[in-house]
Amino acid sequence: MQTFLPEAKTSRPAKLQLGLILAVILITVFEGAVRKWIMPNATNVLLLARDLAALLVVARVAYSGGFRKMPFATECLIVWSLAVAMWGAWQIIVLQGPVVLFFIGLRFWLLYLWLALAMGCSLTEGETRIVVKVMIAVALLMMPLVALQHSLPPSSVLNLQPDTEEDKIFRLSGDIVRVSGTFTFVMGYACFVAAVTPFALGHVWKGRPFYESAWLKALVFAAICVETLFSGSRASITFFGFLLAAQLLIDVVCARSARDAVSSLLKVALVVVALFVMVYLFSDAVTATQDRFVSASESESFTDRVAAMVFGEPQMRDAITFLGSGLGAGTNAGAVLLTGEQGFELAETEQARVILEMGAMGFAWVLIKCVLIAWGMRKSLGKLRSGLETLPLLVWITIAYGLLSWPISGQLSANAFGYILLGLGFACLEPAAGSPLPAFGYMKRGAK
After folding, report:
1. What are the domain boundaries of the chain?
2. pTM (two decimals)
C-alpha cells in the first residue's frame, strides 16, 4: 500500500493551505450567524464552500506527498474508507435506500476524518499556533454576544434559531436561554467552546506561550469560564471542571523545584479566587444552571446520562442489526431526507447512532476511536514525562471527550470541530516536524 503514497516534495504553498484550514474553521463558526441574521437560505452554499475547502486541503496534502509523514495512519484510513464505502454500498443493495443518503454518510464519516489527518501531516508549529490563536480570538469575540443572549429573552432577535419556534428554544430556567452564540443550535456552540478550552487552559506549547500578556491570559480564562457556564450543558460544565482540575494537578505534581511548586499552588489559589468572583458576578446564571441540573436530573440522572453518551441508550440495543439501517441514516441531514424533520432518526447518542446506522461496521468504528484515543493519550503522556509539556495531554483528553460524546458522525458543527480538534491533536504530537511517531510503527520508507 506504500506505493499509493506519492513521494514527499520539498516545496509547499503553506499560506494557501493554512488559509483553507482557517476557512473551514471560520465558516463553521459563522455559518450559523449568516443563517440566523443575514441569509436564512445560505445553508447549502456555506456548507458546500466549507466542504470544498476541506476537500482541497486533503487533495493538496495528498498531491504534495504530505501523507508520507504519517504513512501507517494513512494506509489504515485508506482501508477504513474503502470498508465504509463498500459496506454502505452493500446496505443500498440490500435495503434499497436512496443513493443520496449514501453520499451524505460518506461525507460525515470520512471527509473531515481525512481533514484531521491532513492537518496532522501538514501543519507546522508556527501554523498550528496561528490556528489556535484564531480559535481563541473568535472565542473572545463571541463572549459579548453570549452575554447578551443570556440576558435577553427568547423572543430577542439574537436568540432566534432557524426553523425553531420560540417556545421550543432551549432554556436554563424561566426565560433564560441556553445560548447558541453564532451557531444555529446549542450543540455547535458547546463543541466550539470545548474545542478551545484546552488551549485556553494550557496556553504554553514547547516552552512558548500562545500569548504573552498576563491580562490576555486572564481574559481568555474568564471568557471560557463564562461561555461554559452560559452553555447550560451538564456535560460541558462537568468536563470543564475536570480539565481545569487536571491542568492544576499536573502543574503541582510536575513542578521541578520548590519555587515551581509554590508558583503552581499560587496559581491554584488565584484560579479558585477567580471562580468565586465569577460566581458572584454571574449569580443569576449560576442559579439558572443549578435549576437546569436539578430539572434534568429529575428525568435522567447524570450518571445515566454519561453512561448513555459513552455506551449508547440501553433501549436502543434491541434494535441493533448486523447490517445496520444504512450509511447516513443516523445523520441529521439523513433524518431530514427520510422524514422531513430535523433531528436524529436512529438515536440521540453517538455510539448508539453509529451502531444502529452501520451495524457491525459501527462497532468497528467505536473500537477504532477507543484505540485512537489510547494511542493519543499514551503519546501525550510521553510528552508530559519527557518535557513536562501539558498541552498535548489536555488536547487529547478533550479529543476523548469529543469522540465519545459529541455527535461527530451526524451533526454538522460537531462533525467539523471534533475532527478539527483531532487534527490539532495530531499536530501537537508534531508529525509534520519530521519526527516520526513510533507508536504508529511507521518509518520513512523510501524517503530520500
Report:
1. 2-440
2. 0.89
